[in-house]
Each structure stands twice: as C-alpha cells, then as structure tokens.
Write a structure and sequence with these properties.
Layout: E1 2-6, H1 14-27, E2 31-35, H2 38-43, E3 46-49, H3 55-64, H4 68-77, E4 82-85, H5 87-90, E5 93-96, E6 102-103, E7 108-114, E8 126-131, E9 149-154, E10 156-160, E11 166-171, E12 175-182, E13 185-188, H6 196-208
Parallel strand pairs: 1-2, 1-3, 3-4, 4-13, 5-7
Antiparallel strand pairs: 5-6, 7-10, 8-9, 11-12, 12-13
Helix pairs in contact: 1-6
C-alpha cells in the first residue's frame, strides 16, 4: 500500500512526511512518499494534499503542474481515501473567498470564508492550540474525543452547505470548522502533523480507513 503526499510547491512537507511515515511503520500501513508526479498520485492507495498560504496561490500552484489536479480528481472519483490539510482542505470547497472569489474543486459544497469571531480581541489568524468540539462519528476520529487539542494556523475556514459534511468544530469566538468530510474525502483545518498524539492518532486512523 502506498500513501502519496502531493508536492506542488506549497510549503515545507517534511513534518507531514515524517508523521505519516512514523504511523505507517507503526501500523504496518505500507509506504509514504512525497511526489508531484501525476502518475504516482493516480496509482496511490491514499493521497494527502497539504497546503500552506493563500487559497488562490495554492490553487494556482497545483494547476501549474500538468496533470496533477486531474490525477487527484481521478483518485477521488475512484473511491480511494483522500485527505486535505489546511488549505488543502479548503480547496475542496466550491468557492474560496480569500482576496476575491476563487473556484475550488467543488468536492464538498460550501465556501471558504474569513474568520469573524464575536470577541473582537481575538486575533486573526487563529494560531495555536484549540480543543475539538462537536466531533461526528467518523472512523478517522476513532479514539479522539471532545476536548482533545489540535494545532491551527489559519484566517479562513470552510463552511459546508450540508451539515453532515462538518465532522468537527472548535470554539474561537464562535464555531469554526475543524474538519469536514464526504464519502471517501476527509479534510482538517488543523495540522495533524503538528498536533502531537491527537494528530498522530488521526493520521493512523486515515492510514487504516476503508471508505
């Protein structure tokens, strides 16, 4: 079994690679590789799409590598597990509203909108640890409970049209989305690779998930 972390010039992938490799070894869950090759992505058993920066920039960088988005889309349509992290999750939405209106993948109906906490003293971007809330009964969250802390760095979040696609939230001057999912797709606004034991648990669950 092979898990591919997609490399499209959107941030340092080293920490994600290390965390996924650690759990793959621990669970005997095959190989984890980083690749920008569409054929490698197309043939993978699982795909992880990270993302750091602005929505439009990440969308443009992914589109600049010939065939790479198409390979990701083929993977999703095949029913195999796909995970987006941070902006990699946001791009799965229909639209992104960061610095304009930008078309997403439309895999999860909804929009990526700016955080607007009720408490105006709260800083944007939302940066640091926060406690998970309203966790749905999804296999990737097996063993993860309300109050477990995960690490965020973001100023926008994905608001799905369908409430069933919202898998976890956190409170930051109001409810913000922490994770979304639909069929064989899972996405986290937080960084599991930086979220210590909770993040490693989620990564391990993803590596064993059979949608």
């Amino acid at each position: 079994m092979t898990t591919v972390i997609v490399d499209y010039n959107s941030g340092n992938l080293r920490s994600a690679e290390k965390s996924f490799q650690r759990m793959a070894v621990e669970l005997d869950a095959g190989d984890v590789i980083v690749s920008a090759d569409p054929d490698v992505v197309r043939c993978a058993d699982r795909v992880v799409l990270p993302g750091v920066g602005a929505f439009a920039d990440c969308r443009r960088e992914l589109g600049a590598i010939d065939g790479l988005f198409g390979a990701c889309e083929e993977h999703v349509k095949s029913g195999k597990p796909f995970m987006g992290i941070c902006v990699g999750m946001q791009m799965m939405a229909t639209w992104g509203r960061e610095h304009g209106r930008h078309k997403g993948f439309d895999w999860i109906k909804g929009e990526v909108v700016k955080l607007a906490p009720d408490d105006k003293t709260l800083k944007i971007p939302h940066m640091g640890w926060n406690a998970l809330d309203n966790i749905a009964g999804h296999p990737v969250f097996d063993g993860i409970v309300k109050g477990d802390h995960v690490y965020f760095v973001h100023g926008y979040h994905l608001m799905p049209e369908n409430a069933d696609d919202l898998l976890a939230t956190v409170d930051y001057g109001g409810m913000i989305s922490a994770a979304v999912g639909h069929d064989n797709i899972i996405g986290t606004q937080f960084h599991p690779e930086k979220s210590q034991s909770t993040g490693l648990r989620l990564i391990g669950n993803f590596l064993q998930w059979k949608p």
